[in-house]
TrEMBL record, chain A:
GO MF, one example: asparaginyl-tRNA synthase (glutamine-hydrolyzing) activity
This protein's name: Aspartyl/glutamyl-tRNA(Asn/Gln) amidotransferase subunit B
Natural source organism: Saccharothrix carnea
Biological process terms in GO annotation: glutaminyl-tRNAGln biosynthesis via transamidation; translation
Subunit structure as annotated in this protein's UniProt entry: Heterotrimer of A, B and C subunits.
Location of the Asn/Gln amidotransferase domain: 352-499
UniProtKB/TrEMBL annotation, chain B:
Its job: Allows the formation of correctly charged Gln-tRNA(Gln) through the transamidation of misacylated Glu-tRNA(Gln) in organisms which lack glutaminyl-tRNA synthetase. The reaction takes place in the presence of glutamine and ATP through an activated gamma-phospho-Glu-tRNA(Gln).
GO MF annotation list: ATP binding; glutaminyl-tRNA synthase (glutamine-hydrolyzing) activity; transferase activity
Pfam family, one: Amidase
SUPFAM superfamilies assigned: Amidase signature (AS) enzymes (SSF75304)
Protein species of origin: Saccharothrix carnea
Name of the encoding gene: gatA
Record protein name field: Glutamyl-tRNA(Gln) amidotransferase subunit A
């Protein structure tokens, strides 16, 4: 099923409309156990191996709340500058779906644990944009359906469906923004920057794996447009399945251009769920809200209310780590970075990695040059996140130390790093296996220098006449002879010594 | 000898087994034989676990022979309402939808019974999903009242009560959402206790209405009920609503009450529970019981609880609302029957066909009422208002218990009615729980103890005694004292009047 969308030119969209965003982010907590039972909370197990009567919704089974999940929820709320409820409850969200064992989701409805906060988001040019947070609430994840057969991979038209309940009951925090207005043309960028900031924050809090590719961080983007003279928000669509930072930006931008074209041609926006297609960058209609169900929320009678004491909340506030933006500010001051240098560092997602590399003994300039300049390119080329590249800050620090001690040249160092990225083991093992050690034995080098000088007597003569620049040709010959394993600086020194 | 074993109290049986006067296996076999003899006429059991019972009994005998310490009810047979899960033993909740389901886990109550050495004979019949007051809503045929097999044994726990009255078991477990332990107790001449909500774990109790459901002991004597109460009660981390507090000292209270002295005890008679709709013989039996309490030294006063008049309608909004959500899980995806899965239908269609075929009419009625009451736009008027009534009822109880120690009323307005009489009149059926529902809504303790027979039809009548939350022992004391006085006045226990059952084999 393909549908052709009329799209409006982006500049025209901005000229005629103001975008309004609402972002709902689901975060899977990485607690040891699930939200309401003792099953392991691990990604990727064999289907239906991490289940028990509770998370399978067996008759008679009852939930028992995971205290660690509540603690994480409160810490997230505090980091998002939210108020923490003095008393709140779970509710049941009732609807039938095969991957939901009880046919209701235990969630929080009108009594979220955290509400009324904000997150300051750094945009690409380094400026800050404040996103207001409506609420952060706790809920349980559903299982997963695999629809076999049929064209779309969705339940409709499938020949049969397989169910995996390993994910059922995994603790989720849903973080909902207030309507985000005033972004203008930067709406897609703000959306991406917000999810990025949230991801970094959750990572710093160590509450989730925040892996968008594995679904531990999932974003639904609500988008609507207001005509320039309008006083009320337009009808919104909710785009689901937006599973990378780049997709968040693309999905928002696509919806803006699609909605604008539709509105401009006199059409109306249908309030609906839309699916984002990574390959085409477009969204397609899911179920419309007209047929959406009445969830018949009511307070969950199987759980008692949660009343976190103020003492506990303050204690948890004390456990908050240095938050990403605080750290950025500190790093900029400590390392005397320019705004541009900081922006490069942040945009590369390399603050943690560079800091860790510095902690392992490198200077920040060396570490930045590796992570921001070199490894970011490698990550892009290999299509992975920087942090998932497969090399650790400690390994980079050791490579830097080998360069500083003259045991590796920069060129050799890059080759060592490539070996590590290719899975050949520790840097030392790569050096050994590939024979990448710098030839630092002066007598061997002197022999190579003498041979090169003898081979090019005219050049040797120039050098002896004081034309030191001519030494480059001899350096090149020596490097060639030593298969690049010599330290060029040392070679140059030896040549000049021999010719003086 | 065998008749002797099936007529004995649980306390007597436990003592004789512990003394090795009789073996647990002999006691279990005597009851299994009795079930074989009479259950064809009563239909109290949905499943008899002969092998499991004899194995459990053998284990108790071995433990006693080895000199191991055993609990106060070790070796005593018990019948379990089919709403509690039993690992490896079918659990149907009286519904077609769970036909053939073998739970992979034990309810906490089941586990505690096993750990205490009780011998589980089998699973008893009930109204489907505990919805009903007559056990006629069971998908597996009605249970009959041993006092008159043309009459209902009460419900929803008719099987658990009838098993006691038919001497098929000395103890049983019931669950009480709106009176499902107490009303069957009343109409079968047995003792039924709804402990304080949260007093007994609900883990493994297939939910009807989570905020009201409570498992409790059923027995032929007050002391037996108390002994069983202490086995099953207590905090359970698997049930978040279970109370983390010491179990009320109900056995001590029952023993103290048996001394026959209630001086200093203040008893409140609930004025709302009499008048129109109450069978005269039931009211006369109740008045006689109140008179006996006075003779025992209790101070009796009348207490008005005006919001109790709204308990029934509030209950019939809250319970179906929760049920509509609790029963959503029966969708053919993971357990129970599956209808229409012929490779052409969607999961949604199979869910729908299964629920259509698997649920009986009363269950469907309540799912529909509950779904409606929770719907957007109706929630405040129905579910919301009902919750407010619930608060008012709790306040009435609080006010009453500020002046009296326990409250009393008839357990149910009439004696056992004929099978089929109310099946087409849900409102008439619902009224059987008029007096029992307030304690469920407020969550406090309540029980029914036989108060003799109605003079007009010769059928058993129940006296309801209600106590504040976690004061379960108060009502046991009063009930035990009353039981002694009643038996002395009647010359024999009420239960001894059960007629011989025709020997219809299962
Ligand atoms: Zn589980």
């Amino acid at each position: 099923m393909t549908s052709v969308h009329e799209l409006m030119d982006y500049a025209e969209v901005i000229e005629r409309f103001d975008p309004v965003l609402g972002l709902e982010v689901h975060v899977e907590l990485h607690t040891n156990t699930k939200m309401f039972c003792g099953c392991a909370n691990v990604f990727g197990g064999e289907p239906n191996t991490q289940v028990c009567p509770v998370c399978l919704g067996m008759p008679g089974a009852l939930p028992a709340l995971n205290g660690k999940a509540v603690e994480s929820a409160i810490r997230i709320g505090l980091a998002l500058n939210c108020e923490i409820a003095e008393w709140c409850r779970f509710a049941r969200k009732n609807y039938f779906y095969p991957d939901m064992p009880k046919n209701f989701q235990t969630s929080q409805y009108d009594e979220p644990i955290a509400f009324n906060g904000y997150l300051d988001v750094t945009l690409d040019d380094g400026s800050l944009f404040r996103v207001e947070i409506e609420r952060a609430h706790m809920e349980e994840d559903t299982g997963k359906s695999l629809h076999v057969g049929g064209a779309t991979g969705r339940i409709h038209g499938a020949e049969h469906s397989l169910l995996d309940y390993n994910r059922a009951g995994v603790p989720l925090i849903e973080i909902v923004t207030k309507p985000i207005t005033g972004t203008g043309e930067r709406a897609p960028e703000v959306a991406r920057a917000y999810v990025t900031a949230l991801r970094d924050l959750l990572k710093a809090l160590d509450v989730s794996d925040v892996r968008m590719d594995q679904g531990s961080l999932r974003c639904d983007a609500n988008v609507s447009l207001m005509a320039k003279d309008a006083t009320e928000f337009g009808t919104r669509t909710e785009t689901k399945n937006v599973n990378s930072l780049r997709s968040v930006e693309r999905a928002v931008r696509f919806e803006m251009t699609r909605q604008a074209a539709l509105l401009a041609s006199g059409g109306e926006i249908t309030q609906e769920t839309r699916h984002f297609d990574e390959s085409t960058g477009s969204t397609s209609s899911g179920r419309t809200k007209e047929t959406a169900e009445d969830y018949r929320y009511f307070p969950e009678p199987d759980l008692v209310p949660i009343a976190p004491s103020r003492e506990w909340v303050e204690e948890l506030r004390g456990t908050l780590p240095e938050l990403p933006w605080e750290r950025r500010k500190r790093v900029q001051q400590e390392w005397s970075l320019t705004d541009a240098e900081l922006r490069d560092l942040v945009n590369a997602g390399a603050v943690d990695l560079v800091t860790a590399t510095v902690d392992a003994g490198a200077t920040h300039a060396e570490a930045r040059s590796w992570w921001v300049a070199y490894l970011t390119k490698e990550a892009n080329a290999r299509g992975v996140e920087l942090a998932e590249l497969g090399i650790t800050p400690a390994q980079i620090a050791r490579v830097i130390a080998l360069v500083n001690s003259g045991e590796l040249t920069n060129k050799l160092a890059r080759e060592v790093v490539t070996g590590v990225l290719d899975g050949e083991g520790e840097p030392e093992a790569v050096i050994e296996a590939r024979g990448l050690k710098v030839v630092s034995d002066d007598s061997a080098l002197e022999k190579a220098v003498d041979e090169a000088l003898a081979a090019q007597p005219d050049v040797a003569a120039k050098i002896r006449d004081g034309k030191v620049a001519a030494a480059g040709a001899i350096v090149g010959a020596v490097m060639k002879a030593t298969k690049g394993q010599a330290d060029a600086k040392r070679v140059r020194e030896l040549i000049i010594a021999r010719c003086s | 000898m065998t008749a002797d074993l099936t007529r004995a109290t649980a306390a007597e049986l436990a003592a004789r087994i512990a003394n090795r006067e009789v073996s647990a296996v002999e006691v279990a076999q005597a009851h299994l034989d009795r079930i074989g003899e009479v259950d064809g006429a009563v239909n109290a059991f949905l499943h008899v676990d002969t092998e499991g019972a004899l194995n459990a009994a053998r284990k108790v005998d071995e433990d006693i022979a080895a000199g191991a310490h055993v609990g106060p009810l070790a070796g005593v047979p018990i019948a379990l309402k089919d709403v509690l899960t039993t690992e490896g033993v079918p659990t149907t909740v009286g519904s077609k939808i769970l036909e053939g389901w073998i739970p992979p886990y034990d309810a906490t109550v089941t586990r505690r019974l096993k750990e205490a050495g009780l011998v589980i004979l089998g699973k008893t019949n009930m109204d489907e999903f505990a919805m009903g007051s007559s056990t006629e809503n069971s998908a597996y045929g009605p249970t009959r009242n041993p006092w008159d097999t043309d009459r209902i044994p009460g419900g929803s726990g008719g099987g658990s009560a009838a098993a006691l009255a038919a001497f098929e078991a000395p103890l049983s477990i019931g669950t009480d959402t709106g009176g499902s332990i107490r009303q069957p107790g009343a109409v079968t001449g047995t003792v039924g206790v709804k402990p304080t909500y949260g007093g007994v774990s609900r883990y493994g109790l297939v939910a009807f209405s989570s905020s009201l459901d409570q498992a409790g002991p059923c027995a032929r004597t007050v002391l037996d009920a108390a002994l069983l109460h202490e086995v099953i009660a207590g905090y359970d981390p698997m049930d978040s609503t279970s109370i983390d507090a010491p179990v009320p000292p109900v056995v001590a209270a029952a023993r103290e009450g048996a001394n026959g002295d209630l001086s200093g005890v203040r008893v409140g008679v609930v004025t709302q529970f009499s008048g129109e709709g109450y069978q005269p013989g039931v009211l006369r039996s109740f008045e006689a019981a109140v008179a006996q309490l006075k003779q025992l030294g209790a101070e009796v006063v009348e207490v008005s609880c005006p919001s109790f008049d709204y308990a029934l309608p509030a209950y019939y909004l809250i319970a179906p609302s929760e049920a509509s959500s609790n029963l959503a899980r029966f969708d053919a995806m993971r357990y129970g029957i599956r209808v229409g899965d012929d490779g052409t239908r969607s999961a949604e269609e199979v869910m729908s066909l299964t629920r259509e075929a698997g649920f009986g009419p009363e269950v469907k009625r309540r799912i529909m009422i509950g779904t409606y009451a929770l719907s957007s736009g109706y929630y405040d008027a129905y579910y919301g208002s009902a919750q407010k009534v619930r608060t008012l009822i709790s306040r009435d109880f609080d006010a009453a218990f500020a002046t009296v120690d326990v409250l009393v009323s008839p357990t149910t307005p009439t004696t056992a009615f004929p099978i089929g009489e109310r099946t087409n009149d849900p409102m008439a059926m619902y009224k059987a729980d008029l007096c029992t529902i307030p304690a469920n809504l407020a969550g406090n303790a309540a029980m029914s103890v036989p108060s003799g027979l109605s003079d007009e039809d010769g059928l058993p009548v129940g006296l309801q005694i209600m106590a504040p939350a976690l004061q379960d022992h108060r009502m046991y004391r009063v009930a035990a004292a009353y039981e002694v006085a009643r038996d002395a006045a009647l010359g024999a226990p009420v239960i001894s009047g059960v007629p011989q059952l025709a020997g219809v084999a299962r």
